[in-house]
Specification:
alpha+beta; six-stranded antiparallel beta sheet; 239 residues; single chain; two-stranded antiparallel sheet
């Protein structure tokens, strides 16, 4: 079973809760069985019961699998129905496996809620918590030889808000003017060695604006642009 979420501590925690709930229900059902079955067979039936036809739905930029049809239950019924009484002994555990999909689905919604509260995708602190080992690499010929002023950057982080970075003027300067190797690049610097907020499990690429006042955070799902009042690059030409 997959949440469809990044393997963050929060998602792993709720995944363990899901399996704990299924284990508790399994023990209760087993104790009520008149005819006991082998443990490994019971576990196998529950595992097969988890298989289902499902469709993907998007919620807060996260893919969630919605179970529709009990494929695993149908497979077990097909193989167990031939011998009298065998399907009846395993039926509850097969349906428990299918029910497990909805248990995990409910916990996935809870996980998304916690994830967005603790690690807001529109807050810069989610992507940058420590820059002690940060280094800058020039990614465009227009880039200057600059140095990252780490203390200034960390001081600016709390006040930097997300805003729009795309404009017709920027598009014209970047893609429409002059030769390709002479065009102006708005984000000619890339930062490496930045540590994200612990537990966020974010994967991002960070670019710095040419004037040293903007950060472009590129994630697999979306791009976020943050702007500061002061430049945090030493050696940049402000003209």
């Amino acid at each position: 079973m997959r949440f469809g979420l990044e393997a963050s501590p929060i998602s792993l925690f709720f995944l363990l809760i899901g399996w704990a709930v299924i284990t508790t229900l399994t023990v209760r059902m087993y104790r009520k069985q008149n005819v006991k079955i082998k443990y490994w067979k019971m576990i196998f039936v529950i595992w097969v019961g988890l298989f289902s036809f499902s469709f993907n739905a998007s919620m807060f930029q996260t893919i969630i699998k919605i179970p529709l049809l009990p494929l695993g239950v149908w497979i077990l019924y097909f193989f167990l129905r031939s011998k009298e009484g065998r399907w009846e002994r395993y039926r509850r555990f097969a349906w428990l496996g299918f029910l497990g999909n909805f248990i995990f689905l409910g916990l996935a919604f809870v996980t998304i809620g916690f994830q967005h509260v603790l690690y807001p995708p529109d807050k810069l602190s989610t992507y940058i918590s420590n820059v002690d080992s940060a280094t800058i690499v020039n990614t465009h010929p227009s880039a200057e030889e600059v140095t990252l002023q780490k203390d200034i950057l960390m001081e600016q982080l709390p006040s930097m808000e997300q805003t729009e970075f795309f404009s017709d003027k920027w598009y014209g300067e970047t893609y429409m003017s002059g030769e390709e190797n002479q065009r102006k690049e708005r984000f000619p610097y890339q930062v490496f060695g930045v540590k994200e907020k612990w537990g966020s499990a974010t994967h991002s690429v960070i670019f710095i604006e040419e004037d040293g006042k903007g950060l472009l955070i590129a994630t697999p799902k979306k791009q976020y642009y943050f702007r500061s009042d002061d430049s945090f690059l030493e050696g940049v030409n402000h003209e």
